[in-house]
Design goal:
- This protein is an all-alpha fold.
- It has one domain.
- Helix content is 41%, strand content 0%.
- The chain contains 2 helices and no strands.
- It is elongated, with a radius of gyration of 15 Å.
- The N and C termini lie far apart (35 Å).
- 0% of the residues are buried.
Length: 70
């Protein structure tokens, strides 16, 4: 077996295309793992509310134990 990795930065406009083009191809292999690493800059005064909203979205998606907001 050989492990193939895809790494790099993409624009938000491409994200959905990854879901419809690359992920199905990757699922044809074994032991698929996907990691998230998003970063965004927000104004200091809005950061607390922004993080709370992100955490709520993560909770709503059932990812509370798998994804964290730092």
């Amino acid at each position: 077996m050989r492990t193939v990795q895809i790494k790099g930065q993409i624009s938000p406009e491409i994200w959905n295309r990854l879901g419809t083009k690359i992920i199905p191809k990757l699922r044809s292999g074994e032991q698929l793992q996907i990691e998230l690493d998003f970063s965004v800059k927000v104004k200091q005064e809005a950061a607390g509310n922004f993080e709370s909203e992100l955490q709520q979205i993560i909770n709503d998606l059932g990812l509370k134990d798998k994804v964290s907001v730092l």
